[in-house]
Amino acid sequence: MNDVATLYIVPTPIGNLNDISARAIEVLGSVSWIAAEDTRHSSRLLQHLSISTKTLSLHDHNEDKRAAMLCERLKGGEAVALISDAGTPLISDPGFILVRRCREQGIPVCALPGPCAAITALSASGLPTDKFIFEGFLPVKAQARESAVSALLDRPYTSVFYEAPRRILDTVTLIQRVLGERHVVVAKELTKTFETYVSGSAQDVIDYLTSEAAHQKGEFVVMIGPTHVSEQEIPSEAMSLLHTLCEHIPLKKAAAVVAGHYGLKKNALYQAGLDAKE
């Protein structure tokens, strides 16, 4: 029996084809199979790279069956590379079921580093990056979307999510209505010729989106800055204790101690401590 082969998680360019790594090209050319979210879409990239490896589809509607079949091939010694339409597989793309099955069955999984729209956008956004949460896509149904945005009201760190062109204007309008004057950054056409970042209030982004029809086309990354709690909203004695404790223990631990002592929100104290350092 052949040795068990490896499943490779291979990121592909999100726009600029030059962002494919040498290692990714080597893996895609050496495996037995490439599992692609859309084989027709991926064929253009593979042709550009002169890679003739056999492909098969793996998407949301067939992943369960494909995972079982691919695990058998991997156990039979046939290495597999998993790619999505663009960026890093599994990040708001299929692949979780396959990777979990491989892990459960002792099949090696090797993830290559590479392009990811969320990280690319965040790193150039100018918003805090020390702590953030990636939300994927917001819910489609209106009530669920509003609940998801409302959950950001007291979030003391940056929120990142993807949005489709047909919903981008409605989403930013919802952000304005629910969150008010929060710092918003929207990125589109990342790594492409017309890469654009719009930074400011939700109204600034709305003005940009509505100024030209073309501004609502493309794939979007939406980032919302953290809520800022001023020291004036926290008792002075609590801030004094926080500053004293921070001389001896990390801010995160100090915030937890002060929150417990004064019955305050730990996240609010942590953010106030960060603001005080700026």
Task: Sum this structure up briefly.
The protein has helices at 22-30, 39-48, 63-75, 96-104, 117-123, 142-150, 168-179, 202-211, 236-245, 251-262, 266-277, and strands at 7-9, 33-36, 54-57, 80-83, 109-111, 132-137, 158-163, 184-188, 196-200, 220-224.
SSE topology:
Blueprint: E1 7-9, H1 22-30, E2 33-36, H2 39-48, E3 54-57, H3 63-75, E4 80-83, H4 96-104, E5 109-111, H5 117-123, E6 132-137, H6 142-150, E7 158-163, H7 168-179, E8 184-188, E9 196-200, H8 202-211, E10 220-224, H9 236-245, H10 251-262, H11 266-277
Parallel strand pairs: 1-4, 1-5, 2-3, 2-4, 6-7
Antiparallel strand pairs: 7-10, 8-9, 8-10
Helix pairs in contact: 3-4, 6-7, 7-8, 9-10, 10-11
Report on this model:
The protein has 278 residues and is of the alpha/beta class. Helix content is 41%, strand content 16%. It is built from eleven helices and ten strands. It has helices at 22-30, 39-48, 63-75, 96-104, 117-123, 142-150, 168-179, 202-211, 236-245, 251-262, 266-277, and strands at residues 7-9, 33-36, 54-57, 80-83, 109-111, 132-137, 158-163, 184-188, 196-200, 220-224. The strands form two sheets. Strands 3-2-4-1-5 form a five-stranded parallel beta sheet, with helices on one face. A five-stranded mixed beta sheet has the order 6-7-10-8-9, sandwiched between helices. Helix 2 (39-48) links the parallel strand 2 and strand 3. Helix 6 (142-150) packs across helix 7 and helix 10 (251-262) crosses helix 11. The radius of gyration is 23 Å and the shape is globular. The mean pLDDT is 93.
